[in-house]
Amino acid sequence: MHFTINGQSHDIEVDVRTSLLDLCREHLGLTGSKKGCDHGQCGACTMLVNGRRVNSCLTLAVMHQDDEITTIEGLGQPGNLHPMQDAFVRHDGFQCGYCTPGQICSAVGMLDEVKKGWPSHVTEDLSQAELTVEEISERMSGNLCRCAAYPNIVDAIREVAGQGDRNPNEDVGREVAA
């Protein structure tokens, strides 16, 4: 089978019953996306397929041979982080970090949905420009965090959406180093 993952082509033989998550983790060494519940309930395995959020534990790899697949590794790397990764770090949007790759991929996909004008269950006015805490919470409800870092996750997402403040403590380490 042929796959394009994080912009790289891969020709690989795998069982047709292999999930997209297992293809990436077990066959390609892309272990950033996590296997949490393996039932599509926690969102730790969220990847982007053609820019849309997908629970990779629930979808077969064979279904995505002609798709553009992006894992957390494809969003950014140390020294060249995606803006969402950077915001999560600055806002301390993680504690144990297990759900973080799925949270970040989901947040990136969610902001694209907002740009396209897709409503959520709590959207009252599609012309409303503000991405409220309630709106973000609803849109991110498929991604669970056992550590309950939700306020910081929401702050990071609001910042990247241009509707929140940068973390006021972000320069503390730089000031000490200077």
Going by CATH, the architecture of the largest domain would be: Orthogonal Bundle
Q: Per CATH, what is the topology of the largest domain?
A: DNA polymerase, domain 1
Low-confidence region ranges: 171-178
| Overall spatial form | globular
The biggest beta sheet is recorded as: 5 strands, mixed
Q: Could you name the CATH homologous superfamily of the largest domain? A: [2Fe-2S]-binding domain
- H/E element string? EEHEEEHHHHHH
Q: Between the first and last Cα atoms, what is the distance in angstroms?
A: 52 Å
Strand element count: 5
CATH class of the largest domain: Mainly Alpha
**What would you report as the Rg, rounded to the nearest angstrom?**
17 Å
Q: Give the neighbour order of strands across the main sheet.
A: 2-1-5-3-4
Percent helix range: 25-40%
Total helical elements: 7
Strand content: 5-15%
InterPro entries: 2Fe-2S-bd, 2Fe-2S-bd_dom_sf, 2Fe-2S_ferredoxin-like_sf, 2Fe-2S_ferredoxin-type, 2Fe2S_fd_BS, Aldehyde_Oxdr_Iron-Sulfur, Beta-grasp_dom_sf
Protein name: PaoA protein
Keywords: 2Fe-2S, Iron, Iron-sulfur, Metal-binding, Oxidoreductase
Pfam families: Fer2, Fer2_2
